[in-house]
Write a structure and sequence with these properties.
heterodimer, A: 345 residues, alpha/beta, Rossmann fold, seven-stranded mixed β-sheet, five-stranded mixed β-sheet, 21% strand, B: 233 residues, two-stranded antiparallel ribbon
Chain lengths: 345, 233
């Protein structure tokens, strides 16, 4: 008997299904490997569901700004991109960060800098979290599995519209193109959107340019206050076999999936090791990680970039005395057995 | 004062004698004549145009340099009942944002782009623009613009070459406010009644950076009209 809530899909297909379940109504994008199938998948859905809007724009900058335009009308809009496209996207995301637009982006990371490679990396953490000329008031999730590409593609819309910060989901090329059976049960109910150009008697005048340092500072103070107020609620993580662990691996995304298997391999050798997986890399679930950091003797930070994730973790763990060992391999993946070898004493 | 002006933001922030004031006055009257104030959503660019962020009593979004067109394309797509106006200068439309302007025209997106051409980058102090004519001195062409930077950029003609035949494309001038108003109305009607793209370039004056008197400003814009012909294109 088949379960109609289960489906064999790729990560990019899961993103489209998740966006739909999250209430997305419009997508604007420009083809780029390895995220192209998200745009294609959305446009295919729009062929039969005429309520869905889409436009393949002239570039990623315009895709991002068209998203902003649709958001102003209260439409749940999003884009998907990668690498150089993600770079171009910083222009509209910077505006979204200033005006508090609930911009949603699904970024399937590829190797960089520049055109780099088209398959895999974790080098877009900085871009997603801290790109643009602001202070990084952006929420960044990282998916580890195809199932999570679906679940988090739902969640990013809720998070963005609830807290009104630009919100991203990071995946990568391997995750986007691998096929897996996923459960399509909705994990959250979509929150309501609202018109940001309010269409009321008193006109809404939105601007991102201010005439004095003090005027801008007031806006930024409020934004930072909101960020600090909500960041602990937004932050998410997953702990695996950490109960009796004397050391932990800290990772995110597909690397965390490999690390989970590595933990199982090492547990068979009676090594007391566990995994802290960041579901949000920004804001980090510092509360949960600090508790673990106090308990363990060693933290292994493993990532497919040169310390981009590590810089966030080490900043958040400032003051903790636990030894941290960084294992960085920009734009290359890790196999479970490789991780086992890496974390050997 | 046009009914669709936002009285609380007056007197406006533009320099004395600036052509934006004339253009926005005629835009205000055109909106009043068409009785579409509640339907207009005004998108404005960076540069002097951003000073219009609260100019109209209409919902307004001030965007980034050259990016007003795609913002209004995205808005209009999800809210077809609105009248989407994208207001910018010649730097925003013909330099940094040309790609978006051309593609909106090419796709016949039902938005109205209003571009104010004063032949210089005025907000940053009078640098050379694509529209600066040969021989004209600016702070980045101190001895006069030479041909290696291109002749004065003919925007409406360029847009016409790739736009849908149904698109309305025209050039107006602040020297003839009534014609400007009528052209603005025809452009907006192209959007409201025919759901087509429309583009108007407005030849404008910049006494501050041109360093011209009121009389000489008007003389210069009349000279511009010889190189940049006014009317439907």
């Amino acid at each position: 008997m088949t379960n109609r809530n289960k489906q064999l899909v790729t990560g990019n297909e899961a993103a489209v299904l998740g966006a739909l379940a999250g209430g997305a109504e419009a997508m604007f994008g420009y083809p780029i490997t390895p995220a192209t199938e998200i745009l294609q998948g959305w446009i295919n859905k729009a062929q039969t569901d005429k309520s869905l809007h889409f436009l393949q724009t002239e570039d990623e900058t315009s895709a991002g700004f068209a998203v902003c335009g649709a958001l102003l009308n209260g439409t749940k809009a999003f884009t998907a991109s990668a690498g150089p496209g993600h770079v171009l996207m910083q222009d509209p995301v910077s505006m979204a960060e200033n005006i508090r637009l609930p911009f949603v982006g699904i970024m399937m990371q590829r190797g960089g800098p520049s055109t780099g490679t088209v398959n895999f990396s974790q080098q877009e953490v900085n871009l997603a979290a801290f790109g643009g000329n602001g202070d990084g008031l952006r929420i960044v999730y990282s998916a580890s599995t195809v199932q999570e590409m679906y679940d988090l593609s739902i969640k990013i819309f809720n998070t963005a519209w609830k807290y009104m910060f630009p919100t991203f989901l990071l995946g990568d090329g391997y995750l986007g193109k691998m096929e897996s059976e996923i459960n399509l049960t909705k994990s959250v109910n979509p929150v309501h959107s609202k018109k940001l150009l309010r269409e009321q008697k008193i006109p809404t005048h939105l601007k991102n340019c201010y005439s004095s340092e003090e005027e801008l500072a007031e806006i930024l103070k409020q934004n930072i206050y909101d960020w600090n107020k909500h960041k602990n609620v937004i932050a998410e993580s997953d702990k695996y076999r950490t109960g009796d662990a004397s050391e932990i691996i800290v990772a995110h995304g597909l690397v965390a999936s490999a690390a989970k298997e590595a933990v199982d391999l090492m547990r068979k050798q009676n090594r007391k090791i566990g995994l802290f997986r960041a579901i949000t890399v920004h804001p980090l679930d510092t509360t949960a990680l600090s508790v673990l950091a106090k308990k363990v003797k060693k933290i292994h930070l493993i990532e497919s970039s040169q310390n981009q994730f590590s810089r966030i973790v080490k900043y958040e763990l400032y003051g903790e005395t636990t030894e941290i060992v960084e294992h960085s391999k920009p734009a290359e993946g890790f196999s479970p057995s490789e991780i086992v070898d890496l974390v050997q004493d | 004062m046009p009914k669709s002006w936002y009285a609380e933001s007056k007197p406006h922030y533009f320099c004395p004698g600036c052509g934006h004031g004339v253009t926005l006055k005629q835009l205000g009257y055109a909106i009043d004549d068409m009785n579409i104030q509640e339907d207009v959503v005004f998108g404005i660019d960076i540069g002097c145009s951003l000073l219009a962020w609260n100019f109209l009593a209409c919902d307004t979004i001030q965007t980034h340099h050259g990016r007003t067109t795609p913002v209004m394309v995205g808005y209009k797509m999800t809210k077809p009942s609105k009248v989407a106006l994208a207001y910018m200068g010649d730097g925003g439309g013909y330099a940094i944002g040309l790609q978006s302007l051309l593609h909106a025209a090419f796709r016949n997106n039902p938005v109205t782009v209003i571009l104010v051409n004063n032949e210089n980058y005025a907000m940053t102090g009078g640098q050379m623009a694509p529209t600066t004519e040969l021989g004209v001195a600016t702070t980045t062409s101190p001895n006069g613009k030479t041909i290696e930077f291109g002749p004065g950029f003919k925007g409406p003609e360029t847009v016409r070459s790739i736009a849908s035949k149904d698109a309305f494309i025209a050039r107006a001038s602040v020297s003839n406010p009534l014609l400007l108003r009528n052209i603005l109305k025809e452009a907006m009607e192209t959007q409201t009644e025919k759901n087509n793209f429309s583009f108007i370039e407005v030849l404008s004056i910049c006494p501050t950076n041109w360093k011209t008197s009121a009389e000489d400003s008007l003389k210069r814009v009349k000279e511009m009209e010889k190189y940049y012909p006014v009317g439907k294109i």
